[in-house]
Amino acid sequence: MAVRKLHNWHYIVLAAIVIIPASYFLYGLYQNSETVQRQPESVSQANPAQLDPQPALPELTISDDSSVLRLINAEHRLAPEYVPSDLALPDVSLDSRNPESQLRLRADAAQALERMFAAAKEEEDLDLQLASGYRPYSTQEAIYNSAGGENQTLVAVPGGSEHQSGLAADIKREDFVCRLEECFGNQPEGIWSAGNAHRFGYILRYPEGKEDITGISYEAWHFRYVGEELAKILHDENLTLEEYYQRQVQ
Ligand code: ZN
Description:
Layout: H1 2-51, E1 87-88, E2 105-106, H2 107-124, E3 128-132, H3 137-147, E4 168-173, H4 188-196, E5 202-206, H5 211-214, E6 219-225, H6 228-236, H7 241-249
Antiparallel strand pairs: 1-2, 3-4, 4-6, 5-6
Bound molecules: zinc ion.
């Protein structure tokens, strides 16, 4: 009896010696396999933030006159002596009423305008013409004074005209219908330009309904080159440069 009891107790101890370490061993294996399985999951969760950081938005400047991203208006004027260094005559149809010196644009803006006019022709068989490009400070001053100076709001103040930057293009039909008039906005040429200029880096700079923000009357013909990235943002979000700048400095 005593021998059998001793044997039972022996078995229990033996079982404990074998089963407990074996359990720990198997549990360890299970944990390892869990770690291995979970690893790819945790890596893939971390990846989107690492691989796709928030892209930086284009920033307007009010001090660098030669920047394509220069905000130009009555409040933020160009220096009287500023003349762009890369003015070029674009290879497009040109308004015979304006001298060639005032149909020049900065090189990038000129090339973009060539692509835009070619697309208008190719896509909708529209003939666009450049009515006005670069305008020196002195010319803007003369136009401003003869229009009535401070007593009017139609002509931009000297230094406040984008034409001095060589980045503004007044666009017209090849004939003289609605030349530099609001009704250009109702012409097929004006409608197409307003809807497609952003594809080539241009924006309709003084839109209808935003006169209080831009400080300039609706100009269906005046387009400003800002580069394709910013032009797309402004077009898609229906923002003027002034509104975009406000958002930037807030
Ligand atoms: Zn203009």
